[in-house]
């Protein structure tokens, strides 16, 4: 067990900054702390270059962040605590060009873009989310972690698991992928990424477009997936998830009062470059929602195929 205290020199919404790393309520790598017995916080399990690690983090009333970590990767995890909570983010030059965004900036002073400094743990769930509903993707992520991930190091709550490593992913037989509801296309992309997982970690050091381009060299990883990874692995403020089923409509209704396609999304976000993803994040948290007038996208049961 290793403990670290850190006092952020900026307003910090601890739970809000980390929320983007959670893959649904049943995510086996995540557990919320908030039963009223103490300050709200997070349990999070991850892989690191030194091995798996469990992190427990909460914030005291005076603003100090208290983090405790267990496992071979505990030291690496605590070294990266400030980056995880947005210390390397620089929102100071962001200019809000729309009233909705401007109001969100005012209401959310603690919003930062954090960096896990680790590609693999966010890459697999991002690939699982390609072209399927969140319900399907999160179920697959949960089942893969529970069956092929190791128990979380330390005194973690029951059920917390380490995400399966690249080596373990390569050992999963075809029928287990089918059982987890992962179709052949997404399975091939995950296996292709697992074969070069150690090289893909270099994307964090490259950052920006260069980092996203490195990820896109892997067959099955496109603009959307690379952006989803960049947003989390190195807190990329300009990595917009173009190709998303819902994002153009959401941003369009919020900023111009009508749904958009990807070309329209690109146009309306152009004034925010090189911080377009930060603008998207403010829109997502603004509370504005697009009208629902049609049927929702129906999940497909890949287990029955």
Describe the structure.
- The chain is an alpha+beta fold.
- Among the domains are: 2-90, TATA-Binding Protein; 120-233, Orthogonal Bundle (Endonuclease III, domain 1).
- It contains 16 helices and five strands.
- It has helices at 14-18, 74-79, 81-84, 99-107, 120-128, 134-148, 166-171, 174-179, 184-195, 197-200, 202-206, 208-215, 223-233, 247-255, 262-269, 276-284, and strands at residues 2-6, 30-33, 41-46, 53-59, 65-70.
- β4 and β5 form a beta hairpin.
- The protein is globular and about 45 Å long.
Overview features:
single chain, 305 residues, alpha+beta, Endonuclease III, domain 1, 16 helices
Give the SSE map.
Blueprint: E1 2-6, H1 14-18, E2 30-33, E3 41-46, E4 53-59, E5 65-70, H2 74-79, H3 81-84, H4 99-107, H5 120-128, H6 134-148, H7 166-171, H8 174-179, H9 184-195, H10 197-200, H11 202-206, H12 208-215, H13 223-233, H14 247-255, H15 262-269, H16 276-284
Antiparallel strand pairs: 1-5, 2-3, 3-4, 4-5
């Amino acid at each position: 067990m290793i403990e670290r205290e850190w006092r952020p020199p900026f307003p910090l919404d601890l739970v809000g900054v980390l929320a983007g790393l959670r893959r649904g309520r049943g995510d086996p790598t995540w557990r919320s702390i908030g039963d009223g017995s103490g300050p709200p916080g997070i349990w999070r399990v991850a892989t690191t270059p030194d091995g798996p690690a469990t992190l427990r983090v909460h914030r005291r009333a005076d603003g100090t962040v208290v983090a405790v970590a267990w496992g071979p990767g505990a030291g690496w995890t605590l070294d990266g605590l400030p980056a995880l909570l947005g210390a390397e983010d620089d929102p100071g030059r962001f200019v809000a060009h729309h009233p909705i965004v401007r109001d969100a900036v005012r209401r959310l002073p603690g919003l930062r873009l954090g960096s896990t400094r680790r590609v693999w743990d966010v890459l697999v769930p991002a690939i699982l989310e390609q072209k399927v509903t969140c319900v399907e993707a999160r179920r697959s992520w949960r089942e893969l972690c529970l069956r092929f991930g190791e128990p979380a190091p330390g005194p973690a709550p029951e059920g917390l698991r380490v995400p399966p490593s690249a080596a373990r992913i390569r050992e999963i037989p075809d029928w287990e992928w089918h059982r987890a509801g992962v179709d052949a296309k997404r399975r091939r992309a995950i296996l292709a990424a697992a074969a070069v997982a150690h090289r893909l970690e270099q994307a964090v050091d490259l950052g920006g477009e260069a980092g996203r381009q490195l990820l896109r060299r892997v067959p099955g990883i496109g603009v959307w997936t690379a952006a989803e990874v960049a947003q989390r692995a190195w807190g990329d403020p300009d990595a917009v998830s173009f190709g998303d089923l819902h994002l153009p409509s959401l941003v369009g209704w919020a900023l111009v009062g009508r749904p958009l396609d990807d070309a329209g999304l690109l146009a309306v976000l152009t004034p925010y470059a090189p911080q377009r993803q930060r603008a998207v994040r403010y829109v997502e948290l603004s509370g504005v929602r697009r009208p629902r007038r049609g049927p929702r996208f129906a999940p497909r049961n890949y287990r029955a195929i």
